[in-house]
Amino acid sequence: MDVKLGELPMWLATCNFTPKSLLGGVQKAWNSYCNKYINVKRGGTAGISMLLAGYCVLSYGWNYQHIKRNCWRKYH
Amino acid sequence: MNLSFFDQFASPQLLGIPLILLSMLFPALLLPSPTNRWVTNRLSTLQSWFLQLITKQLMIPLNKMGHKWALILSSLMTFLLLINLLGLLPYTFTPTTQLSMNMALAFPLWLATLLTGLRNQPSISLGHLLPEGTPTILIPALILIETTSLLIRPLALGVRLTANLTAGHLLIQLISTATMALLPIMPTISILTAFILLLLTILELAVAMIQAYVFVLLLSLYLQENI
């Protein structure tokens, strides 16, 4: 899937947003990530590390409402 | 509002979805499902090696009937290990710090071992309530003591896991707060505290793995008595 950045709105208009196709898109993205970084002959720690880093970033985002007030708190 | 150090153990929500749900589902992403290939990737090989190791360790003392428990015990072990280890990453949430989750894991599994024993071999199971060679005069007291110790097992299992992980996370937060607070005032003491933090993190890594192992090992021991 090679979509140029300028063509992005047009490409977005062409794809359908049913739950089934969204799920299929997620599945395809996950499989392509696995095939690129994990299902290789001599995979290293990069594949898993990126997943863990993404998990940390997602957890930060989930907690953001709590964390943004840390500066003003008296008791942490 | 009185905030405390225990705020890190409250499950935060985003759009109504609690983080605990994501934290419990994420370990599944790290475990690839085995394929039909002869030579798989390194992650799959590592996973197969590890699963074989723990299953062998857990199943050796059990008889043939106990081998039916292989799947649940090894999957429980992998689940707890991954959840505990992932909780040591920054900003993540550890579901096993919640007593509710640990009791939900410990109580039904313990009860299953007890009921298996009482159903299949009731006299042997009840016989475990009295150790061999006790003096006759002590028998009533000892039966009461052993019954209490039997009934307190699920509570002990759940609370052991909760307390170990909660205490570890709290210590990490306290010492890191101390390090950051001391940094502008006394940098030398701050470096010393940072070194203590490093040692504590290594300890927490060990504790995360050991507690998962102890949970599953004790369950397999309770199973050994009853099956």
UniProtKB/TrEMBL annotation, chain A:
Organism superkingdom: Eukaryota
Gene Ontology MF: a single term: proton-transporting ATP synthase activity, rotational mechanism
GO cellular component: mitochondrial membrane; proton-transporting ATP synthase complex
Keyword terms, alphabetized: ATP synthesis, CF(0), Hydrogen ion transport, Ion transport, Membrane, Mitochondrion, Transmembrane, Transmembrane helix, Transport
InterPro entries per record: F1F0-ATPsyn_F_prd
Locations listed in the record: Mitochondrion membrane
Any one Gene Ontology BP term: proton motive force-driven mitochondrial ATP synthesis
Record field: transmembrane: 46-64
Pfam families: WRW
Family named by the database record: Belongs to the ATPase F chain family.
Name of this chain's protein: ATP synthase subunit f, mitochondrial
From TrEMBL, chain B:
Keyword Membrane: yes
Chief location: mitochondrion
Domain of life: Eukaryota
Record-linked InterPro entries: ATP_synth_F0_asu (IPR000568), ATP_synth_F0_asu_AS (IPR023011), ATP_synth_F0_asu_bact/mt (IPR045083), F0_ATP_A_sf (IPR035908)
Keywords: ATP synthesis, CF(0), Hydrogen ion transport, Ion transport, Membrane, Mitochondrion, Mitochondrion inner membrane, Transmembrane, Transmembrane helix, Transport
Segments passing through the bilayer: 12-32, 69-93, 137-156, 162-183, 195-223
Topology term for the membrane: Multi-pass membrane protein
GO cellular component terms listed in the entry, alphabetical order: mitochondrial inner membrane; proton-transporting ATP synthase complex
Gene Ontology MF annotations: proton-transporting ATP synthase activity, rotational mechanism
Subcellular location: Mitochondrion inner membrane
SUPFAM superfamilies in UniProt: F1F0 ATP synthase subunit A
Reaction it catalyzes: H(+)(in) = H(+)(out)
Subunit structure: Component of the ATP synthase complex composed at least of ATP5F1A/subunit alpha, ATP5F1B/subunit beta, ATP5MC1/subunit c (homooctomer), MT-ATP6/subunit a, MT-ATP8/subunit 8, ATP5ME/subunit e, ATP5MF/subunit f, ATP5MG/subunit g, ATP5MK/subunit k, ATP5MJ/subunit j, ATP5F1C/subunit gamma, ATP5F1D/subunit delta, ATP5F1E/subunit epsilon, ATP5PF/subunit F6, ATP5PB/subunit b, ATP5PD/subunit d, ATP5PO/subunit OSCP.
Protein family: Belongs to the ATPase A chain family.
NCBIfam families per UniProt: ATP_synt_6_or_A
Protein name in the entry: ATP synthase subunit a
Protein species of origin: Apteryx owenii
